[in-house]
Structures are given as C-alpha cells and as structure tokens.
TrEMBL record:
It comes from the Eukaryota. GO terms for molecular function: zinc ion binding. Keywords: Metal-binding, Zinc, Zinc-finger. This is RING-type domain-containing protein. Gene3D superfamilies: Classic Zinc Finger, Zinc/RING finger domain, C3HC4 (zinc finger). Residues 83-104 are annotated as: Disordered.
Length: 166
C-alpha cells in the first residue's frame, strides 16, 4: 500500500487551531513541547527566556524539570502553509472581484451590459434620465416612463440638429 500516490482531500481546520496562544497569530515555525501544545518557536523561546524559576507550558501550565528540547512540527507547518496559501488566494479573488465590480460600475454607461444584471442596456428611463436594462426597469424603476435607447438617441440627435437643448 503506497501513500505517495494518494491525493488528500481538503480537510477544513479552524484558524484557531493554527494560531499561537502567545502571539495569537498563525504559527511561525510551529514547535511542539512535551505536553503536546504548539507555539511559534520564537514565541516559546521568548516566553521561557522570561521565566526565572521553572519552565512551564503557557497553555496548560504543565511544569518541566528543565527546558525541553523543541521539536519542529512539520505536519502543522504544512497545514499552516496550505492555510496561508488558501487565505492569500481567497483575498486575491475577493480583490479581483471587487476591482471588476468597480470597473463595471464606473463604465456602466459605456458598456452594453448592465453591471448588476449582466443584461443589455437597451431601455431608457425618462423619469431618471438613465440607460438601464429591462430587469432594472422592472425592479428598480417600477412605475417610471420608459423608451428604447435607440429611439431616445434619435430624438436627442434631432433636437441637437434643430438647436434645441435637451
């Protein structure tokens, strides 16, 4: 039976389980002490450097007769790394979606599709003097007076040619 070829399914882990109880951030260089608790290597060393009498676990209080050897928890380090990658990917996706939404909103009048419904901007709302899609007309502009964008453009062109201000 070979484990090398298996792909592991994504197992959700609470971010709290991957956080150091001393600095409260994601574990950096996760280290396990003899009672089984994990801390950032730098945090537990700093914590123990401040202990004058005995050395104990900051989480459960278990005392150790001497300063224990610190063991790097490679499995936990990989979980933290994967979690950080996932968080970074999610943040990038959210930033990208937000930027796309801003671009869509800022150029909604130039685009041919509604930023909200992704439908053609082919309805003119005379009440609000805006170009909108049919869904916006039915939902957000209910009770207003409408026309087709092409007709309104022709009307404005005729008025401009006649010297009438719109």
């Amino acid at each position: 039976f070979s484990v090398m070829g298996l792909t592991s399914p994504h197992i959700p882990v609470s971010i709290n389980h991957l956080s150091c109880r001393i600095c409260t951030k994601l574990l950096r260089n996760p280290t396990t002490i003899p009672c089984g608790h994990n801390f950032c290597r730098e945090c537990i060393e700093w914590y123990w450097d401040g202990e004058q009498r005995d050395v104990s676990c900051p989480e459960c209080g278990q005392r150790f007769p001497s300063r224990p050897c610190l063991i790097r928890n490679t499995t936990l380090a990989e979980m933290v790394r994967d979690t950080e990658r996932g968080l970074n990917r999610k943040r990038k996706e959210e930033e990208s979606a937000e930027a796309q939404l801003k671009r869509s909103r800022s150029s909604a009048t130039e685009n041919t599709l509604c930023w909200l419904h992704n439908k053609p901007l082919d309805v003119y709302c005379y009440t609000d003097r805006k170009i909108i899609c049919a869904d916006c007309a039915a939902i957000r502009h209910r009770g207003h007076t409408f026309g087709l964008v092409m007709e309104e453009r022709k009307r404005k062109q005729v008025q401009e040619n006649q010297g009438v201000t719109v």
